[in-house]
Amino acid sequence: IVWRDNRDSGSHNIFFQRIDANGTTISSQLALTVSDGSERAWPRIVWNGTYYGVAWAENTGFASRIVFARVDLNGNVVGTKVLLGDTPNTRNSIDPDIAWTGTEFDLVWSSSIGADSSVWFARIGPDGARMSVDVLAYDAAANSDRPRLAWSGSMRTKLDGDWLPIRAWQYNFFDEPARLFYIESSMYGLP
After folding, report:
1. Quick check: 117 pLDDT over 70?
2. Which residues contact 185 (CB under 8 A, 6 or more apart)?
3. Which helix (H) or strand (E) holds 95?
4. Using an 8 Å Cβ cutoff, are 63 and 55 in contact?
């Protein structure tokens, strides 16, 4: 499991702990981040059979970005952390979600562009290296946020020549009620 905690000097950090199927802890609580004045939130975790993929939002004072890290069974960060959602035309990248497709980690998050937020997507290989640039998955004239991923083993959506996993997000248009968007298709782009 992963969570954020402000036990160290008021700065929120991301913590990791392994539990078994019965809810019994099988590791100690380990900090994946250090207290450096940055605020962190929205941690997500997925297992790929060898490593955990962990993503969270991190605010360094100027803007928020998404951080991805591979974590081993002992709670050690493996390799270099990957920064996402820090392109020049975005700010306040928040609320990531992550899925393992069997061959790669896929991530989505919402990120502000001007006054509105949009849904972004990126692919990361099992070795922790980027497989894509940040892709604008959905842009709206209002707020699209809280994106979520689910991998069924064969279902993906095509976007700009790349295959994406099933994705859903919330869309708010000014004073209208929030709407949920959901896209699903096969590996071949068929509904």
Report:
1. yes
2. 155, 156, 157, 158, 191
3. strand 91-100
4. no
Residues 6+ apart with CB under 8 A from 95: 42, 57, 109, 110, 145, 146, 147
C-alpha span between 55 and 134 (Å, rounded): 15
Cα separation, 1 vs 48, whole angstroms: 14
Helix (H, G, I), strand (E, B) or coil at 151: coil
The structure tokens 């707020």 sit at 143
| Element holding 113 (H helix, E strand) | strand 105-113
Whether pTM > 0.85 for this model: the answer is no
pLDDT digit string, tens, across residues 3-43: 888 876 667 889 899 999 999 999 888 888 877 777 888 89
Helix, strand, coil abundance in the chain, percent, nearest 5: 0, 60, 40
Please state, in angstroms and rounded to a whole number, the distance separating the CA atoms of residues 66 and 69.
10
> Which residue type occupies 101?
T
